[in-house]
Amino acid sequence: MLVLKASPSFMQRIAVVEVFGTIGGSVNSAGHERVFTAIEKDDKIRALVLDVDSPGGGVSASDYLYHSVARIAQKKPVVASIRGLGASGAYYISCAAQIIVASPAALIGSIGVLSVRPALRELLQKAGVRVSVTKSGRLKDMGAVWRDATPEETEKMQEMVDHSYDMFVSIVANARSLDEDAVRGLATGEVYWAPQARELGLVDELGDLQRAIDIAAELSGAPRKPMYMRPSRSLRAKLFGAMADSLVESVADGIERRMYNDAMRF
Q: For the chain, which residues score pLDDT lower than 50?
């Protein structure tokens, strides 16, 4: 049961934090963690609403932000609002909320782990590029793009993927009060339309951000006064906006979104 310290109602607020873009990229774990810590410690902020539209991202960054949000959920109501795409790491983070609301046309899920390793050996050979490596152990250059992976490296990478997958399944099962075997049946890596996700127990109800704010107000007893909080932006980001994002991040985010959306355009 949540116990909230008393504060004058006119001072109480509901924080809204956007989780837009690739986690570990435009959703910077350090920047968002500072925002979440401030929300956790501020008694005038009575609840948190996560405004989510993200294809996911790095395992470590997603797990870090999940625990940052989970600490808030131990003290205050947290509601996740998935407006477009709540996939993979974005859904992982959303599981820290007590309530998940999704837009009817949102895509939910992609519960799974993917490891991608470019293989450039043949390209480098054709270009006449040779790579000389001096290393301290046989696995020190595991994941190197200039050669094929050894069977041992492939096995160890699969072990890492399986560990992350088990962690993901456990998070979802505990958050959604589902049996782990049932979650594994859903965790094929596919996404679900929000109505189906609700039937499967992955979200609680259909609605928009305003509905999520309403729920946060009901749970916290705070006035419906949303306060939008964002990580501070660097001078470069302020000057150049989207141009300041790395090319790799922008391309990766675009590819992931096209994977889900190209065949389902309005």
A: 1, 3, 235, 259-266
Tell me the residue range of the domain where 124 lies: 116-178
Q: What is the pLDDT of residues 142-172, one digit of tens each?
A: 777 667 778 887 788 888 889 999 999 999 9
Catalytic residue among 26, 29, 88, 220: 88
Q: Is the same domain home to 214 and 87?
A: yes
Establish whether 7 is a catalytic residue.
Answer: no
- 30 Rama class: left (phi>0) / alpha (psi -120 to 50) / beta: alpha
* 74 and 158 inside one domain: no
Instruction: Tell me which of 41, 115, 135, 140 is the catalytic residue.
Output: 140
Residues 49 and 160 in one domain: no
> Is 223 part of any domain?
yes
Q: How many domains does the chain have?
A: 2
88 is catalytic: yes
Q: Contact at 8 Å (CB) between 105 and 193? A: yes
**Nearest by Cα to 229 from 42, 8, 56:** 42
pLDDT tens, 228-242?
999 876 545 555 555
pTM recorded for the entire structure: 0.82
Whether 75 and 200 map to the same domain: the answer is yes
Nearest CA to 27 out of 90, 85, 73, 111 is that of: 90
